[in-house]
């Protein structure tokens, strides 16, 4: 029973880290990255679909994303969808490709994004600590119900704390890397 609590806590902490990584991948740095366009949906035969389902995206250089739709008549719709997504991007269409140049980030915008990234990281730290709290409550309940001894519960609480410390350190490392990426000119 104690092992199940520990495994569940570790699994939930790992999911918090994965969610943070996913959220951070959507924060635009100065370099082109296709995941910046993940929130963009395009009208395709009457329904809204993600951009990646109607086009092939590539990053030919550090400042440009190219979008090659599977059907040429999608080019104006893709261009309009990127404009409407309010990502601060200005796509330009040619005969068979939409090019999306990534504008240079200003110093002020970099600092705003770094602050936003730190807030995201703090949210993840709080989530990890909440997992620790829930696990410790479950352990106390086991002890109270007589399903586990006091020594076992103390050992498990210590392991949960070590797990928490390890995942919080991982969050810090991820945030440091993202901030360095953001502040790089």
Automatic annotation (TrEMBL):
Top-level taxon of origin: Bacteria
Location relative to the cell: Cytoplasm
Function: Responsible for the release of ribosomes from messenger RNA at the termination of protein biosynthesis. May increase the efficiency of translation by recycling ribosomes from one round of translation to another.
Protein name, as recorded: Ribosome-recycling factor
Residue ranges annotated for the Ribosome recycling factor domain, each copy included: 20-183
SUPFAM superfamilies in the record: Ribosome recycling factor, RRF (SSF55194)
Gene Ontology MF annotations: ribosomal large subunit binding
Species of the source: Thiohalorhabdus denitrificans
Gene: frr
Subcellular location, principal: cytoplasm
Cited HAMAP family: RRF
Family: Belongs to the RRF family.
Coiled coil spans: 125-173
Any one GO cellular component localisation term in the record: cytosol
This protein's UniProt keywords: Coiled coil, Cytoplasm, Protein biosynthesis
């Amino acid at each position: 029973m104690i092992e199940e609590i520990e495994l569940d806590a570790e699994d939930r902490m790992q999911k918090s880290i994965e969610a943070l990584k996913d959220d951070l991948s959507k924060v635009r740095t100065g370099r082109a990255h296709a995941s910046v366009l993940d929130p963009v949906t395009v009208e395709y035969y009457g329904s809204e679909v993600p951009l990646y389902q109607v086009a092939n995206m590539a990053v030919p250089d550090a400042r440009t994303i190219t979008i090659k739709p599977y059907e040429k008549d999608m080019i104006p719709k893709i261009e309009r969808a990127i404009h409407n997504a309010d990502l601060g991007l200005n796509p330009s269409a040619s005969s068979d490709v939409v090019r999306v140049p990534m504008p240079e980030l200003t110093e002020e915008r970099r600092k705003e994004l770094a602050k936003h990234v730190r807030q995201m990281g703090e949210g993840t730290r709080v989530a990890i600590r909440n997992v620790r709290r829930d696990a410790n409550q479950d352990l106390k309940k086991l002890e109270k119900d007589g399903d586990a001894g006091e020594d076992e519960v103390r050992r498990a609480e210590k392991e949960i704390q070590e797990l928490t410390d390890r995942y919080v350190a991982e969050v810090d490392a991820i945030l440091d890397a993202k901030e360095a990426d953001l502040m790089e000119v």
